[in-house]
Amino acid sequence: MAVGFNWHKLLHAQLGEDAVKKNSHAFRHYVTDELRYRQDVPDLSRRHLLGHSNSSEENRRYGQRTPPLPLLKPFIDALPRVF
């Protein structure tokens, strides 16, 4: 409960009344859309960031581990700032 309360408190402080229309899943959609259409973000890196399964047979069979966060950080930094 505390995480949800603090999340909405932060959103309201940053977005005002627009925060009522947003939940954490809305930001997941935002990240998906932003990263999907960038040429410099590989599909596999986007999938790791979002916690999606690996789509190819090669990735499923040989790529079970998510890379360390420092390797994914440049893709996180590429996202436009919302607040």
Structural classification: mainly alpha
* Element-level helix/strand string: HHHHH
Major beta-sheet overview = none
What's the shape? elongated
Number of strands: 0
β-sheet strand percentage: under 5%
Report helical residue fraction.
55-70%
The averaged pLDDT comes out at 76
Distance between the termini: 23 Å
Question: How would you describe this protein?
Answer:
It is a single chain. With 83 residues, this protein is an all-alpha fold. The chain has a domain at 20-77. The chain contains 5 helices and no strands. It has helices at 2-15, 24-36, 43-50, 57-62, 69-77. The chain starts with a helix and ends in a 6-residue tail after the last helix.
Blueprint of the fold:
Blueprint: H1 2-15, H2 24-36, H3 43-50, H4 57-62, H5 69-77
Overview in brief:
With 83 residues, the chain is mainly α.
Properties at a glance:
83 residues; mainly alpha; elongated; 60% helix
